[in-house]
Request: fold
Amino acid sequence: MTVKEIADAADVIIDGYAVELLERGVRITNLHDLDHVTFVSPKGEVLETTMDDIELHIAMKYYDSAMSYVEDDDAKVL
Reply:
């Protein structure tokens, strides 16, 4: 996928991270390095990641922030 495709599919973009709600959880992608991706369960648990610990910590802060922008009607998860 390209940066544009990932950005277009995102529900929220925060500081270069695309947060996309999926049926089985949330995908967080670093738009500056598309190989850095994290999948989060509907309960907020990290299921899989290619990010190092520091980037994962940052991405999870963005995840928490993004979830506050997503209204329940729009959410595919939660």
About this structure: Residues 61 and 72 are 20 Å apart (CA to CA).
